[in-house]
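re the bet — no i am not wrong, look at it urself. input seq straight from the record:
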Amino acid sequence: MSAFKNLFSFLFQRSSAEEHVARYVIREHDRGRSLDEILQDRYVQNRLSLEQQRRLLDRPEIIEAISGDMLESARALLAESQPSSAP
């Protein structure tokens, strides 16, 4: 049973890159920067995929640190950034 549990445990783990970027986002926001601006930083762009950036906005520590209005604005921006699936 533990072998089966370990087989899929990676699905529920957050990457250390996400942890580092979450701390970075909170720190930069505390310094007065907007969330949209922070998400455009090369530090964030080079470490997280678009999907990981979307997940970042659902993390409890991010939600707690950043107001709801700013989160909705950032989510809308990331939704607009979604690559089209057109051929």
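see?? The chain has one domain: 15-80. told u. also The helical segments are 2-7, 16-30, 35-39, 42-47, 50-56, 60-65, 68-80. so pay up
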